[in-house]
Every structure is written in structure tokens, then in C-alpha cells.
Amino acid sequence: MGRASTARPEPSRAVRTGSDAATTRPSGAMLLLLAGVALGCYLNSLAGALIYDDVNAIVQNPAVTEPDVRRIVSTGSWFGLSGPTGLYRPVTTASFAANYAIHGASPTGYHAVNVVLHAAVCVVLALVLARVTGNPSLALLAGFVFATHPVHTEAVASVVGRAELLAALLALLAWWIVLARRGAWSRAGAALVLCAGVLAKESACTIVAVALAADLIYRRRPDSGAYLALALGAVAAILIRTAVLGGIAPRPLPLDNVLVTASLGPRLFTALAVVAAYARLLVWPVHLSADYSFPQIELAMSPADPRVLAGAAVLAAAGALAAWGWCRQRHVCFAIAFAALTFSIVSNVAVLIGTIMAERLLYLPSAGFCLLLALAIARIGRGPGATVALGVLVVGLYAVRTVERNMVWHDTPTFVQAMVADAPRSARSHRELGLSLSERNRHDEAVTELGTSLRLGPDEPTTLYDLGNVLAGAGRYTEAIAAYERALERRPELVSAYVNLGNAYSARGEEGAAEGAFRRGLAVDARVADLHLNLANALLRQGRAAEAEAEYREAIRLAPRHALARRNYAMLLRGAGRYAEAAEQVEVLAALVPGNPAVRVDLVASLRAAGREREAWAAQVDAERLFPGDAGVQRMRQLLGG
Q1: Tens digits of per-residue pLDDT, 375-420?
Q2: Which of 148, 353, 480, 599 is close enough to 472 for a disulfide, judged by CB 3.0 to 4.6 Å?
Q3: Helix (H, G, I), strand (E, B) or coil at 83
Q4: SS3 for 79?
Q5: Domain at 442, CATH number
Q6: Quick one: DSSP state of residue 610?
Q7: How many Cα atoms occupy the beta-carbon half-sphere of 489 within 13 Å?
Q8: Collapsing DSSP states into helix, strand and coil, what is residue 221?
Q9: What residues have CB less than 8 Å from 24, skipping those under 6 apart?
Q10: Per-residue pLDDT tens for 127-179?
């Protein structure tokens, strides 16, 4: 990491090809060291669990747990409580599905892929910056800063941050391919790579503007073929997304992005305030947070708000520095352009996104800041030895903070406690803490935290729904019903609330009211298998077996792999003396849940009841092989007379 040149680069230095390109390529040894540093910073993240958004995106995502290429490419990436989220990131989802196919929900593999992807981003970033700036030492220094910057911990240590990693890697790789200028085939490859990047996350498309800006800033001859290739890749991905989702963009919720309720003035003022917050994270990444939702960040209603003034000052300083760089040091101008252009899509100015602020959104934009910081280190160092020493100091301090921050994602209790400590005024933080407490059977504390969340974000439907779940888990069904109804008043499309509302009525023995709740839900969305399943249960408990059977069959039609629907339907069939049909359902059930010994016992009993004695014995032998010490399996052996 020698001294970075401060002289204006020759226009041709960043576009050399063939043997000349070697002069703008960092050495292999240094790239290996860069990758090693990136890996080392995140080794302790490998012990992390799948938590928070990882659960929706992976553990509860049928596109991941029941991998089907057609489903991955033809539907939204995952579903929330009210249905599709409006996100379409099939490349990211496919990577999760590949993980799941190899090692299931075991978290280490997911984290390992994230860490390797981060190391790959660092290497490709250094290669791109070296070719663009013509200064491999500067590019390496920026790469080391990027590898260790603590603001990246959310993108790397949180598994759902993989969307940022893939988008950045594929965008930079596409740009590097066209920088090599190796003909039409390489440009076609770049288009495909960038298309995949945008299908990992939409932010990858900004690399087209960055490539154009780089040529303008360094006064290079424009390569219209390269721009066209990159643009075609980005446009193709956007068209695919539009075709699948019908042009639907993620619909922000006020709790996640308060700007959704704001008029133009407060929206712009608040966006400026957020710019200042992001700048602080880049310059002084000591206080980090996984949550910036309402009211941790509130609307800025006046241009005189100190946060707005700070944001305006950041933009003014960046603009002035870019203008100075245009005249004196093009690397400075390029660094600011890189940061600004990649940040534009997540700034909430042109289009509202799903969150008002998140550290993971700085992943690619921070590369511009890291280049700027590398320039500052080289300027202060004024010599190879001093530059290396200062660079090692900065990188070392960053690495220490990164390793420390990674531990926040170790497990859910640690994570939610950190959320509340880092964002004490956030309604979401208190909600997540409440849910974590409930999972540990600390229901009274959970209700208190959810109450705090509702005071901070009054009548937020999802929080009311979660409160209902906690109250139901504590056996407080009357209060749970009231919470569910309040949630549905605010968001009638919250189908999961109808399911749990009906179940709360059933728990009180009010099957008629339960049936009514399930039918209300079906009027909103008749495609929800759980509503049909629970309606069937309520009908069966009322002695209406024929109607219940129709609902069970519909639930299975909508969700053929729904184990509970098949189990309950098999019970109905056995009760009706239809043993052959019951056995068919249990055979499918055993294939769906092969690790459940009780299902194996049920299979043996069902086959025997259906008169399929030989198959019953074969199923018993199989059960004994799989679960030799299970008491239920042993009792079934005795019943069979063995």
C-alpha cells in the first residue's frame, strides 16, 4: 500500500489492455492478502444464528425450503403477514435455496457464503479501481478500507444482507469485464452478469451511471458499446421484474419508512437529515444500529431543523470537494461521484424504498467513501512508509470494531437487546424484544415491551397482531381477540390475523365465532391454505364432517406439502372408516416429514387398518431401522404381535 499519486492521471491509463493492463493490476499476493483480511474480519460471524429478517427470507420461505426454479423466477422473493412483499430478487433467493439444499437451516453455511462473497467484492473492487484510476496502490488501500469498514457488518453478518453482496459483486464484475475491452462476447457476458446483479438487488443498476461518470471525469473516449451492454443488462432485469410483479414496487409501511405519510417538503427535509446520519456512519462508525425505523428517525418538518442543516452541509461539502477534484485531483471527483450515484437509488428522493435508513444500504456506496479515505491517507502519509503505517492503523481500528459488532448477530436474545440499546426510541426494536421474550415464555415482560412499542407507534397493525399472539400464548384469549380485531381494523388484508383470531375463539370453545373469523379471512384471500385448514377444523368440531372434508381437500390443493392439513384430513377419513384413503394421506405425510417417528407409527397403523398387512410390516421394519429407541415404535411392534 504505497503512496498514492496525487497527480492528474493520464487519460489512457485506466483503459490499457493486453500486457499494458498489468501495470494497473494489483499483484496477486496483495489481492490474496486483501481477501484474507476480509475473511478474517468476519470469521466470528460464522457462529451466528439465522435471526430477524433471515427467518422470513429463508426459514419460512417456501421458495427456499421447497426449492422450485419455476417458483423462484415467477413469484416474489418472499411473503410477509399480508402476502407478497413486492420484492423480486430471484438470484438471491436461488442462492438461499442452494444453501438449504446442501445443509438445511443450519446457519453456518449461509454465513460462510456471505463472508466469501464479501471477500470477492473486495478483490473485484480493487481490480476495478486500479483499472479506472490507473493506481493499483491506491486501489488496494481503498480495498483494505472497504474490507474492514464496520458499516458493512449488517450486510455481511446478517444473512439477508446477501442481496447487497451479490448486487455489488455482480455489478462490479460486469464493469470490470467491459473495462477489459475484449470484444462483443465480453460485452454480452457483462450484460448477463449485470442482469443477474439487478435480479439480486435493484441497486446494481446504478453501476451504469458510475461507468459513464468515470469516463467523463477522467476524460476518456466514451465506449458506447460498453454503456449499451451494461444498460441492456439492467433494463432486461427491470423488464423481467415488471413482468413477474406487474410493476409493483415494495409498499413501505409507516413504521419502516415514515416518509410514506409525508408531503414533499418534509420528505425532502427528512431525506437530507438521513444523509447526515449516513455520513456520520461512514466517518465515525462507532455507534451502529440494526434499526432506524419510526420514531427513531422522525419527520423533519422545517429546513431549519439541525438535522436538515447538517445534511445540507454534507451535500455542500461533497459538491465543493467534487468541484475541487474536477480541477485538481480527478480521483476525488470520481470517489464522490461513485458514492453519490450508487446512493441515489436508496436515498428515498426519486422513489420511496422499504426503509428510511439501513446500514446495509451503504454497502456499495461506501466504496466511494473508502476511495476518498484512501486518498486522504496517502495525502497525509506523503511517503510509502508513512502511508502504509497510517493505512494499517485505520484498517486495524476498523477491523477491531467490525469483529466486535459481528457478535450482535450471534443469537436472537443478543440481537434484540442490542436493537433496543442502539435504537431505544424505535417501536420496532421494542416489538422484536417483546417477541423474543415471549419465545422464552416470559410473557408478562413480552406484553410490556409490546405495549411500549404501541406507545411509540400507536395502533401499528403488525404489532397489534404480535401482541395478540403473545396474549394467546399466555392463555389470555379475550385480550388476544381484542388485539387481533384492532389489527384488522387498521389492516383488513392481514390474513394471518384472521387465522389466529379464529384459533383464539376455538380455544375458548366458540366454534361458531371461529368459523366466522376464518370465513372473513377467506373473503379477503381464498388462496390461503391455513384459513381452509382451520375452517375445516372448526367445522369438524361442530360435527359438520362433509363440509370439513371439502375444506381439507382445498387446503391440500393449495398447499400439497402442508403436513398438518394431510394429518388432520387423514384423521377425518379414519373417523369415517375410510381407511384406504387415510393410509394414502399418511403415506404422503411420511414423505413430507421423514424425521418424525410418530408419523411412522401412524403410517403402520393406517396401513394395517386398510388391510395392507404386508406393507404395514415393511413400514414397521423401516420405522425400527430409523428410530430404534422410540417408545411409540416399540409399542407398535407389540401391537403387531412381533
Answers
A1: 999 999 988 999 999 999 999 999 999 999 999 999 999 999 999 9
A2: 480
A3: strand
A4: strand
A5: 1.25.40.10
A6: T
A7: 9
A8: coil
A9: 13, 14, 16, 130, 131, 134, 135, 136
A10: 999 999 999 999 999 999 999 999 999 999 999 999 999 999 999 999 999 99
pLDDT digits (tens, 9 = 90+) for 435-478: 999 999 999 999 999 999 999 998 899 999 999 999 999 999 99
Domain for residue 28, yes or no?
yes
* Helix orientation angle between 207-217 and 184-200, rounded to the nearest 10 degrees: 130
CA contacts within 13 A on the Cβ side of 219: 8
Backbone dihedral angles phi then psi of residue 489, each to the nearest 5 degrees: -60, -40
Grid cell of 260 as nine digits: 410514506
Residue 444 is placed in which grid cell?
A: 408478562
Torsion of CA 108, 114, 118, 121, to 10 degrees: 140
User: Rounded to an integer, what distance in angstroms lies between the CA atom of residue 12 and that of residue 7?
Assistant: 14
352 and 248 assigned to the same domain? yes
Of the three residues 355, 382, 407, the one that is the final residue of a domain is 407
Q: Dmax over Cα atoms in the chain, in whole Å?
A: 93
The number of folded domains in the chain is 3
> How far is it, in rounded angstroms, from Cα 320 to Cα 47?
44
Please report which helix (H) or strand (E) contains residue 384, including its range.
helix 384-406
Does residue 472 share a domain with residue 599? no
- Band of pLDDT at residue 7, cut at 50, 70 and 90: very low
